[in-house]
Amino acid sequence: MPKTVAVVSGGLDSVTMAHHLHEQGHSLHLLSVNYGQRHLVEHEFASKTARRLGAPHDVADLSAVGRLMSGSSLTDSTVDVPDHHTGASNGGSPNVVPNRNALLLSVAFAVAVAQKAETVAVGVVDDLGAAPDSNAAFIDSFLAMERIATRGYAHPDLTLTAPLVRLRKSDVVTLGEKLGVPWDETWSCFRGDALQCGRCAACAERRSAFRDAGVSDPTIYQNSDEQELT
């Protein structure tokens, strides 16, 4: 039973990953990171996942670092979260926090070294259009770096797994449906209000994933109007 530090935000992908690893027999320690994101409510759903799976859950507080990461709608209160159809015209996304996954994984590897864990897990889905550190090439390169950084201190077999990295979002929903993931106990919305907004890029992607997977979406959105999501 491999001991695994799993980075779980409370989102659809990371919660599905946690259920998948649990089914595979991993001994899980769930780790969330407060990097100053406005949708910090997501961690409540990570906690629910931990309780459901009988796993410990910790939150690393890097909010002071988050305050230095200006320019993203997720960490900068002066930047509004746009609706999904009003992204930046130059091809960049105001919702991307550059280097975020590298930051999260650095913390996870530090925890894994301290606990002599065998695996670090992250629920990224390969999407070069969303963030440059959400793809298989980044995962492979980051692991190569960590094997140098932790040599002699980590478990000799310490590795990094991203079991969803080659899946589409709809595939993640299909997998989670088989695993019995309670979708109403996951959070996607970037705005972090009492209800998921239904309009931001994360909500639009969530709604499209359920639609494309042919699975009923139980989420109650602030904006439940039927609309074409692209």
Notes on the protein architecture:
By secondary structure, this protein is an alpha/beta fold. 36% of the residues lie in helices and 11% in strands. The protein has helices spanning 12-23, 42-53, 63-66, 100-115, 136-149, 169-179, 201-213; strands at residues 3-7, 27-34, 57-61, 119-122, 159-161. A 5-stranded parallel sheet has the order 3-2-1-4-5, sandwiched between helices. α1 runs parallel beside α2 (42-53) and α1 packs across α6 (169-179). The longest helix has 16 residues, at 100-115. The radius of gyration is 17 Å and the shape is globular. The protein starts with a strand and ends in a 17-residue tail after the last helix. Mean pLDDT is 93; it is low at 226-230.
Provide keyphrases for this structure.
disordered C terminus; 36% helix; alpha/beta; 5-stranded parallel sheet; 230 residues
Please describe the topology of this protein.
Elements: E1 3-7, H1 12-23, E2 27-34, H2 42-53, E3 57-61, H3 63-66, H4 100-115, E4 119-122, H5 136-149, E5 159-161, H6 169-179, H7 201-213
Parallel strand pairs: 1-2, 1-4, 2-3, 4-5
